[in-house]
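ok so heres the complex, two chains, lmk if somethin looks off
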Amino acid sequence: MFAAVEFPPIENIVEWPTWFGSGALAFNKIAFMGFIAFILPVLLFLIASSKYKTRLVPKGIQNVVESSVDFVEKQIILPTIGPDGMGYLPLLLSMFLFIFIGNLFEIIPTAHMPANARMANPLVLALITYVVFIGAGLKHNGPKYFVSALFPPGVPKALYVLVTPIELISTFLVRPFSLAVRLFANMLAGHILLITFSVLTISLVGGGILAIISPFSFGMLVAFTGFEFMVAFLQAYIFTLLTGVYIGGAIHPAH
Amino acid sequence: MSTLSHIVHTVAQQAGEAAETTGLNADEAKAVAGAGGAGMAYGLAAIGPGIGIGYLVGQAVQAMARQPESAGQVQTTMFLGIAFTEALALIGFVVFILLKFV
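and the predicted structre for the whole thing:
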């Protein structure tokens, strides 16, 4: 009865044919979406800044851009790093917009594939975070940063046998991994969820008497598309927020 | 610990039985065992974070209801907590993908 459409194998869900190039430089749909996610914010900010000189009251695109800057400033930097972290605004803002637009391709028709559902994208972003928070700690605290990170003050001396290895693993080994896996697995899970309901709807339509319940399956598909829009935003927010938390922890040790 | 080894043992035993009774070859038997293990891995991984996120958000809502002026700060901390708790379930999901498809 359900033989009309089979669930596609995982290779068909996440792997895309190469358009040109080969090997590590192969250019396909994912790379194309990555380029759009990089060019679109640049264009938006250039347009908005070109009008900034003549019009101080924001309007149109300028409004969107200014509210995104305001969001990163008020919701991400101030609660996590504090007022002295405003120097990290360009990094966090471009990170947020790149991830958000890359995620949005999950629900844009004809694209229907989040750019961050392949491990390469989140992994590179997580490695950038890794380098930046260690660099920030070294810049603000010097080599003492590693001492305060590995030997947190206020702990009884005998407990350092236990605390130091845990801090070493959790701060310098697990952080980039968990950051990358969080974004990757969330987007891949949402992608598979949407595919499941699409396949279910199509096979119910061709399933004889079962076609009566296909509108419910379609309704779930629509509802989950809305839910995935929220997830796309939330994951971009959480990734940037955690980057802020790590940088804040490196700049102000022993909080 | 004994429960876990029991589960692993059961899955392996089922794969062996499936191979004997149905005459599957080693790869197919491995796929059967992988599918069973994948479902169990994700199901077990979802229990703890499910309880954790429910408790976390419930407490955050309570805090926001009692002290609405600190809602913004509570919300930021809540999202952080959700991110850390959710990571466990997501690692379970990755294990599911690895067992089922790779």
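quick notes: The first helix of chain B runs from residue 2 to 22. thats all i got rn
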